[in-house]
Design brief:
This protein has helices at 15-29, 46-52, 74-81; strands at residues 6-10, 37-41, 58-61, 67-69. With 87 residues, the protein is of the alpha+beta class. Helix 1 links the parallel strand 1 (6-10) and strand 2.
């Protein structure tokens, strides 16, 4: 079984979430990062809506608990996925 190391919090119809997913896809195509990212739709969970409703998209490292909120660019995302921006 593949272990999920990252979660991307967002929801359908969120333009910024779509941009974040595009960045992930671009990094994957460039082989900059080969990580498994689970998409998590916050809309059906009140706790997630409260936590992330005004900050989505948010990417979270499920092991460390570190999160990065939008806005982020491809370089920042690559650093986060590689663990270089977690402090």
């Amino acid at each position: 079984m593949i272990e999920v190391k990252f979660e991307l919090y967002g929801t359908d119809g969120c333009h910024l979430c779509e941009l974040a997913e595009q960045l992930l896809a671009e990094l994957d195509q460039l082989a900059v990062s080969k990580v498994i990212v689970k998409r998590v739709d916050i809309i059906d969970d009140e706790r997630l809506v409260e936590a992330y409703g005004t900050t989505i998209p948010v990417i979270k490292n499920t092991h460390s608990g570190f999160e990065m909120n939008w806005p982020f660019d491809a370089a920042q995302l690559a650093d986060f996925l590689a663990g270089r921006s977690e402090k």
